[in-house]
């Protein structure tokens, strides 16, 4: 395959992943929808980082963050959406999902010679852990005590609640779904 066809394939893949991200972000805007669905909006970012590379994963993460920022601005679900209007909270941490997931995936698959499914599971879990830690960290850096006051608890209690309610669920969900998605992609690619 020549370079132009390869670039076209990458661009097409990224466009499909972006479209899926937009759909998932809109689905999470439906009132009373399960909070665990939030992980779905970053599955395309994880898959992009694993299939195309770290740079493309970071771009997809930035796009996913920009879409969540737009949703927070134009379709807020709760008073907490106010915190995500700042791109330091909604966009910057999401870029690092691709960096972490892609790096761990390549380390495990290429350096440790583990199967792609194992690398996808661990890379997905680490990508979502990165998202949780960086978003919570940026919430505190940007909004400080306002965020803690909105949660109605102390800082460490707030961190614990956010990690336990979102972080663990997102890590487990990504660890289960990413090997499936990676296998589907590799079979399709063949």
UniProtKB/TrEMBL annotation:
Gene3D superfamilies: 1.10.1760.20. It comes from the Bacteria. One of its GO terms (molecular function) is transmembrane transporter activity. InterPro entries: ECF_trnsprt_substrate-spec. Pfam families: ECF_trnsprt. Keywords: Membrane, Transmembrane, Transmembrane helix. The chain crosses the membrane at residues 12-29, 35-52, 59-77, 83-105, 117-142, 154-182. This is ECF transporter S component. It comes from Alkalibacter rhizosphaerae.
């Amino acid at each position: 395959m020549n370079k132009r066809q390869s670039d076209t394939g990458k661009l097409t893949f990224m466009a499909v992943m972006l479209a899926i991200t937009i759909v998932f972000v809109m689905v999470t805007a439906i009132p009373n929808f399960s909070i665990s669905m939030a992980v779905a909006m970053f599955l395309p970012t994880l898959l992009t980082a694993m299939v195309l590379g770290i740079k493309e994963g970071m771009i997809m993460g930035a796009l996913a963050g920009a879409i969540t920022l737009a949703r927070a601005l134009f379709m807020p679900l709760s008073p907490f959406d106010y915190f995500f209007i700042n791109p330091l909270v909604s966009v910057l941490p999401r870029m690092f999902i691709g960096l972490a997931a892609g790096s761990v995936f390549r380390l495990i698959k290429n350096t440790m010679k583990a199967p792609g499914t194992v690398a996808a599971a661990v890379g997905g879990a680490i990508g979502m852990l990165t998202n949780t830690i960086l978003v919570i960290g940026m919430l505190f850096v940007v909004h400080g005590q306002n965020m803690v006051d909105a949660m109605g608890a102390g800082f460490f209690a707030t961190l614990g609640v956010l990690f336990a309610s979102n972080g663990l669920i997102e890590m487990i969900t990504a660890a289960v779904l990413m090997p499936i998605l990676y296998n589907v992609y590799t079979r399709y690619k063949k």
